[in-house]
């Protein structure tokens, strides 16, 4: 009986935004005095349906925020992510290709730079740093999900890029009201904790 109540309490706690916020990986120390020269957005995967490729919902959410920030601040937008899918042939677009297509439809006035060779967050940072250096940029706004940003910021900082973090808030404001959205974030959070350990061992 005690185990049943404990399991119930854990399940309820996992639906509370206040609890889930406390589980998020901590952000790196904030760097003051950053004057962004570009907005960088990281891809969040692709999906295929009936032979057509499109961005995931998470990817679209990131891109919308990044494009809006680039428009508001008059900055170029850098989209990063995605080799071709294995077994899909040369016609399969990269994540960056799909992001550029979306931007051209909705924000045709933006200057867009594309990095389309990266396979993970580390390569996002390494390859984007090379692209930014070609344009004499080393201070950016970095857009991703809150759970992913600690790892992404560490990777970009390791390449000499000063970055301010930006993300769409996904947790409800009501901190102690149960939320399915809070529960759905848990797999992402645990994944990011494991990824941080792996990245510190391999890259950082």
Describe it.
The strands form two sheets. A five-stranded parallel β-sheet has the order 5-4-1-6-7, with helices on both faces. A two-stranded antiparallel sheet has the order 2-3. The protein has helices at residues 2-13, 17-23, 57-73, 95-106, 121-134, 149-158, 180-202; strands spanning 38-42, 46-49, 52-55, 77-80, 112-115, 139-143, 162-166. The chain has 204 residues and is of the alpha/beta class. Helices cover 47% and strands 15% of the residues. The protein has a single domain, classed as HUPs (Rossmann fold). It has seven helices and seven strands. Helix 4 links the parallel strand 4 (77-80) and strand 5. Residues 5-13 have low confidence and may be disordered. Helix 5 (121-134) packs across helix 6. It holds the Pfam family DUF218. This is DUF218 domain-containing protein. One of its GO terms (biological process) is Gram-negative-bacterium-type cell wall biogenesis. It comes from Alcanivorax nanhaiticus. InterPro entries: Cell_Envelope_Assoc, DUF218, Rossmann-like_a/b/a_fold.
Architecture blueprint of SSEs:
Elements: H1 2-13, H2 17-23, E1 38-42, E2 46-49, E3 52-55, H3 57-73, E4 77-80, H4 95-106, E5 112-115, H5 121-134, E6 139-143, H6 149-158, E7 162-166, H7 180-202
Parallel strand pairs: 1-4, 1-6, 4-5, 6-7
Antiparallel strand pairs: 2-3
Helix pairs in contact: 5-6
Protein name: DUF218 domain-containing protein
InterPro entries: Cell_Envelope_Assoc, DUF218, Rossmann-like_a/b/a_fold
Pfam families: DUF218
């Amino acid at each position: 009986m005690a185990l049943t109540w404990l399991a119930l309490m854990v399940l309820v706690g996992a639906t509370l935004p206040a609890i889930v916020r406390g589980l998020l990986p901590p952000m790196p120390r904030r760097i003051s005095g950053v004057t962004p020269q570009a907005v960088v957005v990281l891809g969040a995967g692709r999906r295929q349906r009936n032979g057509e490729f499109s961005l995931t919902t998470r990817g679209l959410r990131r891109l919308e925020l990044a494009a809006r920030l680039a428009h508001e601040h008059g900055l170029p937008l850098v989209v990063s992510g995605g080799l071709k899918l294995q077994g899909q042939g040369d016609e399969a677009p990269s994540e960056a290709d799909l992001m550029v297509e979306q931007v051209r439809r909705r924000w045709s006035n933006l200057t867009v730079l594309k990095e389309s060779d990266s396979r993970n967050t580390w390569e996002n940072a390494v390859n984007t740093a090379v692209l930014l250096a070609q344009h004499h940029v080393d201070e950016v706004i970095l857009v991703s999900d809150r759970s992913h940003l600690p790892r992404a910021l560490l990777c970009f900082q390791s390449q000499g890029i000063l970055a301010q973090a930006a993300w769409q808030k996904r947790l409800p404001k009501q901190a102690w009201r149960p939320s399915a959205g809070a529960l759905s974030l848990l797999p992402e959070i645990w994944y990011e904790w494991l990824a941080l350990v792996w990245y510190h061992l391999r890259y950082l």
